[in-house]
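User: I'm new to structure prediction. If I give you an amino acid sequence, what do you actually give back? Let's try with this one:
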Amino acid sequence: MNVPAWLWVATLVGIIGVIALDLVIVDRRPHPFGPKEAARWVVFYVVLAALFAVFIGIYFGPSYSGEFVAGYLTEYSLSVDNLFVFLVIMTSFAVPAAYQHRVLLVGILIALVLRGILIVLGAQLIERFSGIFYIFGAFLLFTAWKVWLSNDEDEPDPDGNGLVRFVARRFPTSTEYNGTKLTAVVAGQRMLTPMALVMLAIGTTDLLFALDSIPAVFGITSEAYIVFAANAFALMGLRQLFFLLKGLLGSLQHLSKGLAIILGFIGVKLVLQAVHETTSLPVPVIPVWMSLAVIVVVLAVTIIWSFASSRSTKES
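Assistant: Good question. You get back a string of structure tokens that encode the predicted 3D arrangement of the chain. For your 316 residues, that looks like this:
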């Protein structure tokens, strides 16, 4: 896949343009984000991703389009785990409802930049070291095992973010919000507001999730452009998905099991691909269509199972 420089530039400009449009339309007047408004934006971003998949199919061929769709669905589903953490962080920082969308927007912009750096590093590793898929595969299998055994009720500790603790210690911080401003003058001294800290917390905490999800997408495609695009489209739609699912997150009690299966499947796929490329052993290579089918079926079964279990619990 030979991606011309102009397409990289056009993609980056397009992403910035869409985010700027979102910022102008939604954040010109800070307000609590309701489910109906969130649903409209979720549909908008999903349709945008679908149109991009069509473009990839026309320009590069249907196989690359399938890789993008599989990567996008994987990234989007794994990103749902982020929503639990975002909810805990914003609750911990007591972010006013009217400013939560701005917090997520800036936090995810930080995350996108950091993920872009990881993707570039990952692409370089794949190009220079053919055995890297063994490491990626083993890492995903280990992560899948940890996710499967994890307690769904375990909550992350926002205070555990080392960078946020470092900034809070090194710079004077206030305890009061000043709208969406990152700094405020308190008693004649310029201080960081909680808004700055919570944005930093969300952006950098997402990086921990990227350590799992980026190798997973590289397990579907080795094309850095597709990996970046899948990450960008998933992250752009993540803010609206947060407000849409905010009241339903507790009902997705079996989601971690589904994510563990997806991670495990991609881990096996990576190991098989590594064996195929580095040895002469006759191992099967899992095609993209099979990866896409497994991801869709596992997600559908997991979501239905979660809502059915939640409903039966309420009835009993």
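You can read the tokens as a compact description of the fold. Here is one thing that stands out. The mean pLDDT is 81.
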